[in-house]
Amino acid sequence: MKRFFFTSVLCLLTLIVASFNVQAQNEFVDLGLSVTWATCNVGANSPEENGEYYTFDKALTLENNGERLPTKEEFQELIDNCTWLWREEGVHGYMATSKKNGNSIFLPATGKRAEGFDGPKVFFGGSIGYFWSSSVYNDEKAYFLWFGEIIGTDYYDRIEERPVRLVQYVKK
User: Fold this and answer.
1) In b/e form, how buried is each residue of 69-85, taking b as 16+ CB within 10 angstroms?
2) Is the dihedral of CA 13, 19, 20, 22 positive or negative?
3) Can you give the pTM of this predicted structure?
């Protein structure tokens, strides 16, 4: 009986510690905007990692506990209220630094995943970044943030796979 109790407590503690580790991966930065931005893409352990790639519909299932995909308008707010510095050394991507408070986030040039001749393949990795928004264009297309030489939003087929950077509403 003691062994069963000890094993049960140990399993419970392991689950609690594991849940804290998952929570720790989702840290958010206040850029002085309407939402706070995650420091990493979903599925990444550091800002430089691409994380996982999702179709639009699958990306929408990641929203929970106040964490959600940014809207097209929130991406535009990020574009308009940050200075964007391209990083050439190490992992390529943009450092977006808030013009309001000086805080920053790094967005890696993730590329996008689509079907190639020999199966799914990441295209444009290291040169272009793509991130799904929650905003719908029509029944087949949705908006996303993209960057290369310029930074903007556009729309494309929902079945294409892109990384996700989550946001949270600013707590007042």
Assistant:
1) bbbbebbbbbbebbeee
2) positive
3) 0.83
- Supply 146's token pair: 């993209």
Amino acid occupying residue 163: P
Name the residue type at position 76: Q
The amino acid at 112: K
Q: How far apart are the C-alpha atoms of 40 and 55, rounded to whole Å? A: 18
Label the pairing between strands 151-157 and 141-147.
Answer: antiparallel
Strand partners, 82: 98
Burial readout 141-161 (b: 16 or more C-beta within 10 A, e: otherwise): bbbbbbbeeebebebbebebb
Question: Coil, strand or helix: which one is 160?
Answer: coil
Q: Per-residue confidence of the chain (172 residues) as pLDDT tens digits?
A: 554 443 343 333 333 333 333 334 579 999 999 999 999 999 999 999 999 999 999 999 999 989 999 999 999 999 999 999 999 899 999 999 999 999 999 999 999 998 888 888 999 999 999 999 999 999 999 999 999 999 999 999 999 999 999 999 986 6
Structure token pair of residue 95: 């450092």
